[in-house]
Design goal:
The protein is mostly helical and about 300 residues long. The chain has two domains: about 1-120, no CATH class; about 145-300. It contains 16 helices and no strands. It has helices at about 1-5, 10-20, 20-30, 35-65, 70-80, 85-105, 115-120, 125, 130-145, 145-175, 180-195, 200-235, 245, 250-265, 270-285, 290-300. Helix 12 packs antiparallel against helix 14 (about 250-265).
Length: about 300
Protein backbone atom coordinates (compact mmCIF):
# COMPACT_ATOMS: atom_id res chain seq x y z
CA UNK A 1 0.00 0.00 0.00
CA UNK A 2 2.79 2.45 0.84
CA UNK A 3 4.42 1.65 -2.49
CA UNK A 4 1.19 2.49 -4.30
CA UNK A 5 0.90 5.82 -2.51
CA UNK A 6 4.46 6.99 -3.22
CA UNK A 7 5.02 5.65 -6.78
CA UNK A 8 5.29 8.23 -9.53
CA UNK A 9 6.39 5.66 -12.11
CA UNK A 10 3.41 3.88 -13.67
CA UNK A 11 5.15 0.52 -14.06
CA UNK A 12 6.40 0.57 -10.47
CA UNK A 13 2.92 1.59 -9.36
CA UNK A 14 1.43 -1.37 -11.23
CA UNK A 15 3.90 -3.75 -9.59
CA UNK A 16 2.86 -2.56 -6.11
CA UNK A 17 -0.81 -2.61 -7.18
CA UNK A 18 -0.57 -6.32 -8.04
CA UNK A 19 1.59 -7.14 -5.02
CA UNK A 20 -1.05 -5.72 -2.67
CA UNK A 21 -3.52 -8.27 -4.02
CA UNK A 22 -1.51 -11.38 -3.09
CA UNK A 23 -1.17 -11.06 0.71
CA UNK A 24 -4.79 -9.95 1.05
CA UNK A 25 -5.96 -13.05 -0.82
CA UNK A 26 -3.77 -15.27 1.38
CA UNK A 27 -5.02 -13.60 4.57
CA UNK A 28 -8.66 -14.20 3.60
CA UNK A 29 -8.06 -17.79 2.46
CA UNK A 30 -5.96 -18.70 5.51
CA UNK A 31 -7.58 -16.84 8.39
CA UNK A 32 -11.22 -16.54 7.26
CA UNK A 33 -13.78 -17.43 9.90
CA UNK A 34 -15.90 -20.01 8.01
CA UNK A 35 -15.50 -22.80 5.48
CA UNK A 36 -16.36 -20.30 2.71
CA UNK A 37 -13.09 -18.41 3.18
CA UNK A 38 -11.31 -19.91 0.13
CA UNK A 39 -14.29 -19.16 -2.10
CA UNK A 40 -14.34 -15.55 -0.85
CA UNK A 41 -10.57 -15.24 -1.42
CA UNK A 42 -10.79 -16.56 -4.99
CA UNK A 43 -13.74 -14.28 -5.70
CA UNK A 44 -11.83 -11.26 -4.44
CA UNK A 45 -8.72 -12.24 -6.42
CA UNK A 46 -10.58 -12.69 -9.71
CA UNK A 47 -12.58 -9.47 -9.31
CA UNK A 48 -9.38 -7.49 -8.71
CA UNK A 49 -6.98 -9.29 -11.04
CA UNK A 50 -8.95 -9.39 -14.30
CA UNK A 51 -9.47 -5.58 -14.55
CA UNK A 52 -5.84 -5.13 -13.47
CA UNK A 53 -4.72 -7.09 -16.55
CA UNK A 54 -6.64 -4.60 -18.70
CA UNK A 55 -4.98 -1.78 -16.74
CA UNK A 56 -1.56 -3.17 -17.71
CA UNK A 57 -2.51 -3.07 -21.39
CA UNK A 58 -3.52 0.60 -21.03
CA UNK A 59 -0.25 1.43 -19.21
CA UNK A 60 1.81 -0.18 -21.99
CA UNK A 61 -0.23 1.70 -24.62
CA UNK A 62 0.58 4.96 -22.84
CA UNK A 63 4.28 4.05 -22.89
CA UNK A 64 4.19 3.31 -26.61
CA UNK A 65 2.57 6.70 -27.29
CA UNK A 66 4.67 8.82 -24.93
CA UNK A 67 7.88 6.87 -24.28
CA UNK A 68 7.64 7.34 -20.50
CA UNK A 69 6.05 5.88 -17.37
CA UNK A 70 6.63 9.08 -15.36
CA UNK A 71 3.36 10.39 -13.96
CA UNK A 72 4.21 14.15 -13.91
CA UNK A 73 5.40 13.91 -17.52
CA UNK A 74 2.23 12.06 -18.55
CA UNK A 75 0.10 14.65 -16.76
CA UNK A 76 1.94 17.37 -18.70
CA UNK A 77 1.22 15.57 -21.99
CA UNK A 78 -2.43 15.24 -20.97
CA UNK A 79 -2.70 18.95 -20.18
CA UNK A 80 -1.27 19.73 -23.61
CA UNK A 81 -3.53 17.16 -25.34
CA UNK A 82 -0.46 15.47 -26.81
CA UNK A 83 -0.72 11.87 -25.59
CA UNK A 84 -2.48 10.69 -28.74
CA UNK A 85 -4.60 12.23 -31.49
CA UNK A 86 -6.83 9.13 -31.42
CA UNK A 87 -9.70 10.13 -29.12
CA UNK A 88 -11.28 6.67 -29.22
CA UNK A 89 -8.06 5.01 -28.01
CA UNK A 90 -7.71 7.58 -25.23
CA UNK A 91 -11.30 6.92 -24.18
CA UNK A 92 -10.70 3.14 -24.03
CA UNK A 93 -7.47 3.61 -22.06
CA UNK A 94 -9.26 5.85 -19.56
CA UNK A 95 -11.99 3.22 -19.15
CA UNK A 96 -9.33 0.55 -18.53
CA UNK A 97 -7.84 2.65 -15.73
CA UNK A 98 -11.22 3.50 -14.25
CA UNK A 99 -12.52 -0.09 -14.36
CA UNK A 100 -9.51 -1.42 -12.42
CA UNK A 101 -9.85 1.33 -9.82
CA UNK A 102 -13.66 1.06 -9.60
CA UNK A 103 -13.49 -2.63 -8.69
CA UNK A 104 -10.99 -1.91 -5.93
CA UNK A 105 -13.08 0.93 -4.42
CA UNK A 106 -15.68 -0.76 -5.06
CA UNK A 107 -18.18 1.28 -7.08
CA UNK A 108 -21.69 -0.09 -7.66
CA UNK A 109 -22.27 -2.47 -9.50
CA UNK A 110 -18.69 -3.82 -9.28
CA UNK A 111 -19.00 -4.63 -5.58
CA UNK A 112 -19.69 -8.37 -5.86
CA UNK A 113 -16.58 -9.34 -3.89
CA UNK A 114 -17.13 -6.90 -1.02
CA UNK A 115 -19.58 -8.61 1.35
CA UNK A 116 -17.95 -12.06 1.11
CA UNK A 117 -14.40 -10.75 1.46
CA UNK A 118 -15.17 -8.47 4.41
CA UNK A 119 -17.32 -11.15 6.08
CA UNK A 120 -14.47 -13.68 5.91
CA UNK A 121 -11.39 -11.50 6.37
CA UNK A 122 -9.76 -11.11 9.79
CA UNK A 123 -10.30 -7.74 11.44
CA UNK A 124 -6.78 -6.44 10.74
CA UNK A 125 -7.16 -7.20 7.02
CA UNK A 126 -10.65 -5.71 6.72
CA UNK A 127 -9.38 -2.22 7.50
CA UNK A 128 -7.38 -2.05 4.25
CA UNK A 129 -9.81 -3.89 1.95
CA UNK A 130 -12.14 -1.18 0.69
CA UNK A 131 -11.74 2.36 -0.52
CA UNK A 132 -8.27 3.72 -0.02
CA UNK A 133 -6.26 2.33 -2.93
CA UNK A 134 -9.00 2.68 -5.54
CA UNK A 135 -10.07 6.18 -4.53
CA UNK A 136 -6.48 7.44 -4.36
CA UNK A 137 -5.75 5.93 -7.77
CA UNK A 138 -8.78 7.59 -9.35
CA UNK A 139 -7.74 10.97 -7.96
CA UNK A 140 -4.06 10.62 -8.88
CA UNK A 141 -4.03 8.65 -12.12
CA UNK A 142 -7.46 8.80 -13.79
CA UNK A 143 -7.88 12.52 -13.14
CA UNK A 144 -4.19 13.29 -13.78
CA UNK A 145 -3.72 11.41 -17.06
CA UNK A 146 -7.27 11.49 -18.46
CA UNK A 147 -8.86 14.77 -17.30
CA UNK A 148 -11.14 15.25 -20.32
CA UNK A 149 -12.29 11.63 -20.32
CA UNK A 150 -12.96 11.81 -16.56
CA UNK A 151 -15.19 14.86 -17.08
CA UNK A 152 -16.95 13.00 -19.89
CA UNK A 153 -17.86 10.01 -17.72
CA UNK A 154 -18.58 12.10 -14.59
CA UNK A 155 -22.42 12.16 -15.00
CA UNK A 156 -22.51 8.35 -15.03
CA UNK A 157 -20.21 8.12 -12.00
CA UNK A 158 -22.33 10.63 -10.06
CA UNK A 159 -25.40 8.49 -10.80
CA UNK A 160 -23.59 5.29 -9.76
CA UNK A 161 -22.40 7.00 -6.58
CA UNK A 162 -25.96 8.01 -5.63
CA UNK A 163 -27.30 4.55 -6.50
CA UNK A 164 -24.52 2.90 -4.48
CA UNK A 165 -25.43 4.97 -1.43
CA UNK A 166 -29.09 3.95 -1.63
CA UNK A 167 -28.35 0.32 -2.50
CA UNK A 168 -25.79 -0.10 0.31
CA UNK A 169 -28.17 1.41 2.88
CA UNK A 170 -31.17 -0.71 1.86
CA UNK A 171 -29.20 -3.97 1.80
CA UNK A 172 -27.58 -3.14 5.16
CA UNK A 173 -31.04 -2.68 6.72
CA UNK A 174 -31.96 -6.36 6.23
CA UNK A 175 -28.69 -7.89 7.46
CA UNK A 176 -28.54 -9.92 10.68
CA UNK A 177 -24.78 -10.46 10.48
CA UNK A 178 -22.95 -7.41 11.84
CA UNK A 179 -19.94 -7.92 9.58
CA UNK A 180 -22.10 -7.96 6.44
CA UNK A 181 -24.05 -4.95 7.70
CA UNK A 182 -20.77 -3.05 8.07
CA UNK A 183 -19.67 -4.25 4.61
CA UNK A 184 -22.72 -2.76 2.89
CA UNK A 185 -22.35 0.34 5.04
CA UNK A 186 -18.82 0.65 3.66
CA UNK A 187 -20.24 0.49 0.12
CA UNK A 188 -22.45 3.46 0.98
CA UNK A 189 -19.55 5.45 2.43
CA UNK A 190 -17.21 4.97 -0.53
CA UNK A 191 -20.12 5.84 -2.84
CA UNK A 192 -20.38 9.20 -1.05
CA UNK A 193 -16.73 9.81 -1.94
CA UNK A 194 -17.33 8.82 -5.57
CA UNK A 195 -20.28 11.22 -5.74
CA UNK A 196 -18.12 14.03 -4.36
CA UNK A 197 -14.95 13.69 -6.41
CA UNK A 198 -16.75 13.32 -9.75
CA UNK A 199 -18.58 16.63 -9.28
CA UNK A 200 -15.25 18.34 -10.10
CA UNK A 201 -16.05 21.19 -7.74
CA UNK A 202 -13.72 22.44 -5.02
CA UNK A 203 -16.15 21.53 -2.24
CA UNK A 204 -16.91 18.12 -3.74
CA UNK A 205 -13.25 17.17 -4.23
CA UNK A 206 -12.25 18.43 -0.77
CA UNK A 207 -15.18 16.62 0.81
CA UNK A 208 -14.41 13.41 -1.06
CA UNK A 209 -10.77 13.42 0.03
CA UNK A 210 -11.71 14.26 3.62
CA UNK A 211 -14.40 11.57 3.62
CA UNK A 212 -11.83 9.03 2.45
CA UNK A 213 -9.87 9.76 5.62
CA UNK A 214 -13.07 9.62 7.68
CA UNK A 215 -13.98 6.23 6.24
CA UNK A 216 -10.53 4.93 7.15
CA UNK A 217 -10.82 6.17 10.73
CA UNK A 218 -14.53 5.51 11.41
CA UNK A 219 -14.72 2.29 9.43
CA UNK A 220 -11.51 1.00 10.99
CA UNK A 221 -12.82 1.77 14.49
CA UNK A 222 -16.14 0.06 13.74
CA UNK A 223 -14.51 -3.12 12.42
CA UNK A 224 -12.14 -3.16 15.40
CA UNK A 225 -15.08 -3.01 17.81
CA UNK A 226 -16.85 -5.77 15.89
CA UNK A 227 -13.66 -7.83 16.07
CA UNK A 228 -13.54 -7.38 19.86
CA UNK A 229 -17.11 -8.65 20.15
CA UNK A 230 -16.30 -11.63 17.94
CA UNK A 231 -13.24 -12.54 20.01
CA UNK A 232 -15.37 -12.54 23.14
CA UNK A 233 -18.59 -14.15 21.90
CA UNK A 234 -17.58 -16.01 18.70
CA UNK A 235 -20.44 -14.64 16.57
CA UNK A 236 -21.48 -11.67 14.47
CA UNK A 237 -25.20 -12.46 14.72
CA UNK A 238 -26.77 -9.34 16.20
CA UNK A 239 -29.63 -11.41 17.66
CA UNK A 240 -27.11 -12.93 20.11
CA UNK A 241 -26.05 -9.61 21.63
CA UNK A 242 -29.06 -8.81 23.82
CA UNK A 243 -28.16 -7.02 27.07
CA UNK A 244 -24.71 -6.04 25.81
CA UNK A 245 -24.82 -2.58 27.41
CA UNK A 246 -25.04 -4.04 30.91
CA UNK A 247 -22.05 -6.33 30.35
CA UNK A 248 -19.74 -4.09 28.30
CA UNK A 249 -20.73 -0.45 28.88
CA UNK A 250 -17.45 1.03 27.57
CA UNK A 251 -17.58 -0.91 24.29
CA UNK A 252 -21.19 0.17 23.81
CA UNK A 253 -20.20 3.79 24.47
CA UNK A 254 -17.46 3.53 21.85
CA UNK A 255 -19.96 1.92 19.45
CA UNK A 256 -22.33 4.86 19.84
CA UNK A 257 -19.59 7.47 19.29
CA UNK A 258 -18.18 5.60 16.27
CA UNK A 259 -21.61 5.08 14.72
CA UNK A 260 -22.59 8.73 15.16
CA UNK A 261 -19.32 9.74 13.51
CA UNK A 262 -19.90 7.36 10.60
CA UNK A 263 -23.48 8.53 9.97
CA UNK A 264 -22.40 12.19 9.97
CA UNK A 265 -23.73 13.72 13.19
CA UNK A 266 -22.99 17.48 13.28
CA UNK A 267 -19.86 18.42 15.27
CA UNK A 268 -18.28 15.04 14.41
CA UNK A 269 -15.85 14.41 11.53
CA UNK A 270 -18.30 12.53 9.29
CA UNK A 271 -20.59 15.54 9.04
CA UNK A 272 -17.87 17.79 7.64
CA UNK A 273 -17.03 15.41 4.80
CA UNK A 274 -20.63 14.65 3.84
CA UNK A 275 -21.65 18.33 4.00
CA UNK A 276 -18.83 19.28 1.63
CA UNK A 277 -19.66 16.40 -0.73
CA UNK A 278 -23.34 17.28 -1.02
CA UNK A 279 -22.61 21.01 -1.21
CA UNK A 280 -20.21 20.33 -4.07
CA UNK A 281 -22.71 18.02 -5.77
CA UNK A 282 -25.30 20.79 -5.75
CA UNK A 283 -22.79 23.12 -7.46
CA UNK A 284 -21.88 20.63 -10.22
CA UNK A 285 -22.48 21.58 -13.84
CA UNK A 286 -23.54 18.11 -15.03
CA UNK A 287 -27.06 17.14 -16.06
CA UNK A 288 -29.41 15.80 -13.35
CA UNK A 289 -26.85 16.48 -10.59
CA UNK A 290 -29.53 17.97 -8.33
CA UNK A 291 -31.78 14.90 -8.63
CA UNK A 292 -28.97 12.48 -7.76
CA UNK A 293 -27.82 14.69 -4.87
CA UNK A 294 -31.34 14.87 -3.42
CA UNK A 295 -31.57 11.07 -3.61
CA UNK A 296 -28.31 10.42 -1.79
CA UNK A 297 -28.27 12.25 1.63
CA UNK A 298 -31.17 10.46 3.40
CA UNK A 299 -29.67 7.06 2.65
CA UNK A 300 -26.07 7.98 3.47
CA UNK A 301 -26.93 8.02 7.17
Amino acid sequence: MLGIFVSLDLFLYYAFWELSLVPMTLLIATFGRTENRRRAAIKYFLYAFIPSAILLVAILWLYVKTGTFDLPTLAGFAAANSISPNSAALWLASLAFLAAFAVKVPIFPLHGWLSDAISEAPTAAVMVLAGKLGLYSILRFSFGIFPQQSHRIAPLMIALGAIGIVYGALIALVQKDLKRLAAYGTLGHVSVVVLGIFTFTIAGLDGGIYQTLNEGIGGGALFMLLGLLYERYGTYDMREFGGLAAKLPWIVTLFVITTLSVVGLPILNGFVGEFLVFSGAMQASFAHHVAWTVLAPPESS
